[in-house]
TrEMBL record:
GO molecular function: oxidoreductase activity, acting on paired donors, with incorporation or reduction of molecular oxygen
Signal peptide stretch: none
Pfam families, per database record: Bac_luciferase
Occurrences of domain Luciferase-like (ranges): 7-304
GO cellular component annotations of the record: cytosol
Domain of life: Bacteria
The family this protein is said to belong to: To bacterial alkanal monooxygenase alpha and beta chains.
Organism placement in taxonomy: Bacteria, Pseudomonadati, Pseudomonadota, Gammaproteobacteria, Alteromonadales
Name listed for the protein in its UniProt record: Luciferase-like monooxygenase
Amino acid sequence: MTGSTAFSILDLAPIAQGQGIAQTLEHSRQMAVQAEKLGYNRVWLAEHHGMRGVGSSATSVVLGHIGAATNKIRIGSGGIMLPNHSPLVIAEQFGTLAALFPDRVDLGLGRAPGTDMATARALRRNMQASVEDYPSDIRALQSYLGSPSDDQTIIAVPGSDSHVPLWLLGSSLYSAQLAAQFGLPYSFASHFAPDALFDAFNIYRSQFKPSAQLNQPYTMAGVMAVIADTDEEARYLYTSLQQQFANLRRGANKPFARPVDDINTVCSPAELSMIAHTLQYAIVGSPETAHAQLARFIENTLADEVIFSFPIHDQKARLHSMQLLASSQNMRKSL
């Protein structure tokens, strides 16, 4: 990869219609291996629970799987939903990953449950108290992962002195303010929550306070990418993502759908309007079309890094999309 904007991968670990969990995890391994070969900066996976279309609920375990299959690409969470967990447990998990894969591990954090409220309650945390404790839980994580003090009574083993870098993730102004206050890198979920993107980045950059981890603001933006040899093929592949968002709106918990020839046969006009707004920053098209869309996005956001999800049902088409994004000569010259 070339240019000043880094490119990374957010693997949504889609459980595709007609496929199983083992196949999904093998696809994640293949994506990470290819991402490393193509020069992507990092591969992240996200914590979701109870979703029939997402296979990365045990995020740290899956990171061990892809870390073992690769050699140098950074791996991490995009993110761990901290209110679901004891900070000490997360420090131990990511301290273990850092010992296995030195200088390669990121710990991205979010405060949403990553699921429905019934499943959140089954995770056995008091959700209201946990969300309110989010800033102090981040501080606790920093303490567990940092250099231990002589009077420290609780020590993460593994984890202590690992200095795993933290990121804050979000889709709101709250997360931007907190990342700025803590002096941490900030990743915005513009791939599914576009409305506050520019306000969040402006607040984060203007309020940023340097920290031991980071001396100046660093921004990442999420983008859905469906790139194929032609615009027509890309639009066809994109119908899987459109169906997924329609299912989310309907409350239908289904695997990641196969593409369809005519999206109008499975989604209503109102649903398609909602989806178009939600996915307004999606990159969909041939390499030439994608280049123009992406160049405009980077110019407007000034993001230091773009993290791409490739929500494509067919694994070969997904890997091809990754390659097209990475190898476009126009992109290499311009970004």
